[in-house]
């Protein structure tokens, strides 16, 4: 199922709708590589309360985990991602491995202490990912016209 922008129903399902559809298939694991950006208006910190519009998704995730389903969400790409910061959700972040085999936290992926869920440190584990500006260490498919697609396309065209 294609998940897109919640504010544009024609663009695809909301994360909540996608999660509910996944539950209908009785999975053992649900993995979603996106989430909501819960940055505070100052842009430097995260919201300290979950917006009411996300309470239904939070409840669905709690119920899924209580039934034994492992739930994985993205830690974010430089933001305070929800539901990745929920305590019982496995939060996936990113690490960069340079040509000498040395690892460093990717500046593209998020790492933070949740201001909503006390004591929650994000992420739980890291996969391979690149560094800013494109994080193109391992390029994943992105929908056309997304910010990363526009940035890469413009950079690629300027080098031709």
Provide a concise account of the structure shown.
With 160 residues, this protein is an alpha/beta fold. It contains three helices and nine strands, in the order αββαβββββββα. The protein has helices at 15-24, 55-66, 147-158; strands at residues 29-32, 36-37, 70-74, 81-82, 90-97, 103-105, 112-113, 121-122, 125-128.
Your description of this structure?
The protein is 21% helix and 20% strand. The chain is of the alpha/beta class and 160 residues long. Strands 1, 3, 5, 6 and 9 form a five-stranded mixed sheet that branches. Strands 2-4 form a two-stranded antiparallel ribbon. A two-stranded antiparallel sheet has the order 7-8. Strand 5 and strand 6 (103-105) form a beta hairpin. Helix 1 runs parallel beside helix 2 (55-66). The longest helix is centred in the middle third of the chain and has 12 residues, at 55-66. The protein is globular.
Number of strands: 9
Sheet bearing the most strands, described? 5 strands, mixed
What are the segments in which pLDDT stays under 50 over at least 5 consecutive residues? Answer: 155-160
Quick check: average pLDDT? Answer: 83
The span between the termini is 36 Å
- The coarse overall form would be globular
Q: Which structural class do the helices and strands define?
A: alpha/beta
Oligomer: single chain
Helix content: 10-25%
Strand fraction band? 15-25%
H/E series:
HEEHEEEEEEEH
**Cα-atom Rg, whole angstroms?**
16 Å
Number of helices: 3
